[in-house]
Amino acid sequence: MKTRVLETKRIAQTGYWLEVPGHTGAKLVWGISPEGFERLVDGRGNRLLIRQDQLHYIDFSLLQRSPAKTAGESRYYGRGAIWLSRLANGETAVIRPYLHGGALRRLTGDRFFTWPPRPFRELAITEELRRRGIRTLEIYAACVSRPFGPFYRGWLITRQLSDAEDLWSALKTGLAERLDFDRVLQIIAESMAALHRQGVYHADLNLKNILIRAEGSDVAAYVIDFDKSKVFLGKLPAPLARKNLDRLERSVRKLDPKRKFFPAEAWDRFVSYYHAAFGS
Burial, 279: exposed, middle or buried (Cβ in 10 Å; 0-12, 13-18, 19+)? Predict the structure, then answer.
C-alpha cells in the first residue's frame, strides 16, 4: 500500500490521477483490468490503462506526436497508420489506432461508442492469453480519449517484437523459406491449435495477424490483434474452430489468389499439422 501511495503522488504531479477501482460505473468504463495495470485519468477525462512498470515512460503525449516525429512506421499492418515510438527506457513501442472497417468507417471513422472500450477489452483478453502461455504481443497500455458525448477514440500500445514479420510479408520477402517453410507451417498450426484448446475464437484471423521470427535454432509464431475476439470455456467448439480456419484460408485466397506464395498443397499440410496438434 505504501508503494501505491507514493506512486499516486508522482502521477498527480504530471496531471494524472489514479482511478479508484470499484467506483460507480467503473466496470462499464474500464471493463476488467488485469493485475499489474493501473487506471489513469487526466483533467480532460482521457483514460490510460497502463502497465505499472511503464508509468514513467508512457502518457497521452505519445499519441499526439506525428508519425514523422517518432521512430518511424511499423512494418505491421492495420486499418490505419501504425507507428513506432522510442521510449526513454530504450524500448520501442508500437502504437495502433482503432478504426472502423467497411461502410461504417465512412460514417464514424475512428470514433466508437461500444462500452467497455475496445482497447481495454483487447488488453484484458491479450493479457489473459499471455497468462495461459499463448505467444502474443506484450501490451504496454490501452488508451481512450473522449471527443464528445458517448464516443471515444482508442489506441493500443505494445512492445515491438524485434526481427518479426507478419506471415504475408514473410512469404513475399522469403523469410518463411529461409526459416524452413514447412517448419513455419507446423509452428503456426500448433499456435492455432493452442488458441483453440484455450477456447479462443479470433475475430480477424488473417496472414497479417500472425508474426513469425527466428528464436534460437527454431521458429516462433505470435498471433496478434484480439480486438473483438471471444474466449469460451473449455476447447473452442468444432464448428467455430473450422470457421476460424476458413477465415484464415479466405485471407490466403484474397492476398495470394494465384497461390504463388502459399500453394494449395502447403495449406493442406498446415491443416494436417493443425489437426495433429489439436488432437482431432
Answer: exposed
Confidence of residue 12 (pLDDT cuts 50, 70, 90): very low
Residue 174 and residue 180: Cα distance in Å, rounded? 10
The pLDDT tens digits of the residues spanning 145-177 come to 876 667 888 999 999 999 999 999 999 999 999
**Residue 54 above 90 pLDDT?**
yes
Rounded to whole angstroms, how far apart are CA atoms 180 and 175?
9
3-state class (DSSP) for residue 139: strand
Query: Which residues carry out catalysis?
Result: 204
Residues 61, 62, 68, 69: is their CA dihedral positive or negative?
A: positive
- How far lies 8's CA from each of 56, 88, 128, in Å? 12, 21, 26
HEC string for 17-50: EECCCCCCCHHHHHCCCCCCEEEEEECCCCEEEE
Looking at residue 17, its pLDDT comes to 55
Residue 37 dihedral angles phi and psi, to the nearest 5°: -115, 145
SS (H, E, C) 51-116: EHHHCCCCCCHHHHCCHHHCCEECCCCCCCCCEEEECCCCCEEEEEECCCCCHHHHHHCCCECCCC
Residues in contact with 270: Cβ distance below 8 Å, sequence separation at least 6, in sequence order: 185, 188, 189
Residue identified by cell 523459406 is: 177
pLDDT grade for 68, boundaries at 50, 70 and 90 = very low
pLDDT at 31: 78
- Answer yes or no: are the C-beta atoms of 154 and 97 closer than 8 Å: yes
Lowest model confidence (mean pLDDT) among 12-16, 103-107, 192-196: 12-16
pTM of the model: 0.84
